[in-house]
């Protein structure tokens, strides 16, 4: 999906349904679409803020304006990439609200970054396990553990309206990048199966438009990843290849500036296939595993 024409509605509070308002952060890029979308949940006294976004003064000011003096009961992050969680700490200082949600996580890696680096300063007051809830006046948010994009990724289900806040796990504009060592393709696929089994009415991702046909989109995403897996095995059966040699063949119709991100997801697929005994690595080339 190409970026929509500017101007984008940065800083404006958009009431997307009675219990949910959305504020767009000014951090649009090829990897964040038009920017991070922060969601305010609640219609009266007592709000939850989901994915407060980057620590940007203009975004914090926009959130303060949208909160409009109402009590904030929880600041909740889906994961700790720096386009999602850094505003949690300053917003907590402004509002007095606790930071509740995903676990802290910081991974050091020498690999070129194709997603946002981790937020070293994230320090939650409470970490939610799968199925735990946070409640406020007229709303209930349930944590749905969805590791894969990151090991600490959570989605949040708004029980009153059957909406799911999907962070970076499911987005309509792009597939989620899976970057080893923390990103794990097997976990990601299992998490896709998990949300596919749910009956959510709508998804609100952290980037891009709302998903109004959730199961249809997730079914397509699962099929796409399985297709990539089969493609890798087929290409390696033809001849051993490095990741650098696989990517131009697999993504020949994709803009080259996206190839580093594609390479990370190919690597995640290869590690998963290796664990399953389907491929093997020798020096810098991947081979089909010998048949038993």
UniProtKB/TrEMBL annotation:
CDD domains associated with the record: metallo-hydrolase-like_MBL-fold
Transmembrane regions: none
Record protein name field: MBL fold metallo-hydrolase
Metallo-beta-lactamase domain: residues covered: 35-207
Top-level taxon in the UniProt lineage: Bacteria
InterPro entries in the cross-refs: LACTB2_WH (IPR041516), Metallo-B-lactamas (IPR001279), RibonucZ/Hydroxyglut_hydro (IPR036866), Sec-metab_biosynth-thioest (IPR050662), WH-like_DNA-bd_sf (IPR036388)
Gene3D superfamilies with a match to the protein in the record: Ribonuclease Z/Hydroxyacylglutathione hydrolase-like, Winged helix-like DNA-binding domain superfamily/Winged helix DNA-binding domain
